[in-house]
Structures are given as C-alpha cells and as structure tokens.
C-alpha cells in the first residue's frame, strides 16, 4: 500500500475505533443530561464513517508518500518546528514555562524578524500565555525557582 491517503484513512479508522471502544465504557446519559460518553461515542462514529468514505476516495486519487514529504526549505522548516517543540517539552519542567516558551518561540521567529524584535516577541508571547493560563484559567504551569 503506497498510497499515503489510504494509510491516513486506515490510521484514522483505527484511532476512531479505539475512541469508540473506550466511549462504550462510559455513561451516555446521567441525571444532569448528557454523560461523559455521549460526545466521544458520536464523534468517533462520525469519524469512522468519514474515514471509510475517505478510504474509498483515496482509491481514485492516489498520492504517494514521497510526494507528501516536504523537500529542501520545507523540510528544514518542518525540522525546526520539531526542534522547537522538543526544546519546550524537554526544558519546561526544568527552567519553567516562560523561559522554555521564550526559547521555543525565538527558534520559530528569529529568521523572520531582527534579533531584538524576535526576543521581545518571544518574551511577550510567553508572558501573555503564562498569564492567560495561570491567572485567567487557573491552570498550573511549570515554573522555575523564581516562580516563572
């Protein structure tokens, strides 16, 4: 099976079936109305139907996996995004959300802006997200010894 669309449809079909199976163990309805299994059940059922439809569509429109993969500049951009995400995940617990976020955002924007603008933008975005999650949404985020 060299058709990338067929692979994507099969993976989505398996994922949807797993979600459906998990949702069957939850209540669909409770005293307050919809239960925790209601949306996962119906959404996974819809995803199964769409996956099967997409599988049939990919039989006509063949896309090879080699055609889908990025090349040259696109590949470099893709790898840079992966590196930035890895830096954030590997450093957030150690140096805190703001520092890890600043480094990760800087890696993504330093080529598009001057260094000063990129640093300011990175710090600003990290601070904004930190305060939105911590203050407005009360979501605990990893912090360093300074509390940020």
TrEMBL record:
Signal peptide: none annotated. Residues 7-142 form the DUF1468 domain. InterPro entries: DUF1468. The keyword Cytoplasm does not apply. The chain crosses the membrane at residues 41-57, 78-110, 116-134. Keywords: Membrane, Transmembrane, Transmembrane helix. This is Tripartite tricarboxylate transporter TctB family protein. It comes from Brevibacillus nitrificans. The lineage of its organism: Bacteria, Bacillati, Bacillota, Bacilli, Bacillales.
């Amino acid at each position: 099976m060299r058709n990338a669309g067929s692979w994507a449809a099969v993976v989505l079909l398996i994922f949807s079936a797993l979600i459906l199976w998990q949702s069957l163990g939850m209540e669909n309805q409770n005293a307050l109305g919809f239960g925790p299994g209601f949306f996962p059940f119906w959404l996974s059922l819809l995803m199964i139907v769409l996956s099967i439809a997409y599988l049939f569509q990919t039989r006509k429109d063949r896309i090879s996996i080699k055609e889908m993969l990025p090349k040259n500049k696109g590949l470099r951009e893709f790898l840079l995004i992966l590196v930035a995400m890895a830096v954030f995940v590997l450093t957030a617990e150690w140096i805190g959300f703001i520092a890890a976020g600043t480094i990760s955002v800087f890696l993504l924007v330093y080529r598009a802006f001057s260094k000063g603008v990129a640093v300011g933008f990175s710090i600003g975005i990290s601070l904004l997200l930190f305060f939105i999650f911590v203050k407005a949404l009360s979501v605990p985020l990893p912090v360093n010894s300074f509390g940020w």
